[in-house]
Write a structure and sequence with these properties.
Elements lengths: L3 H18 L6 H8 L3 H13 L4 E3 L5 E3 L2 H6 L2 H9 L2 H4 L17 H17 L2 H5 L2 H9 L1
Helix pairs in contact: 1-2, 1-3, 1-5, 5-7
Amino acid sequence: MFSKTCEYGLRAVIFIAQHAKADKKVSITAISNAIDSPQAFTAKILQQLTKHKIVQSVKGPYGGFYINDTNLKTTVLSNVVQVLDGDTIYTSCGLGLHECNDQKPCPLHFKFVEIRENLRKMLESTTLLELSSDKNIADYYLKT
């Protein structure tokens, strides 16, 4: 459903958010290793997220990426998806057809509409703070 860019972006912001709760900045190397993404690709994704003020960065030996307290509380996953993938996840065909709508539906159209709406609700209501507090997610990143 998500592009690889968006998948890595979501993983990265969750990883950064977990460290931000402990008031720590994380390096591009640590992020790319934790999310299993090529470092150059991760850097481009984080550049976009920094440009849109979802994450912040500080250069230098004590620098790295972080998310401020306000963004932890207010940034929802749909913000990240919008920056990296736009709104196509909410509008594209479940089978990838170019012409699929209520007037000319694909075989999955009406079932997929419901799935997309549930996905939208989840993405618009899940904050980075919520995910960074989730023990299962914390355990996952501690194992990597």
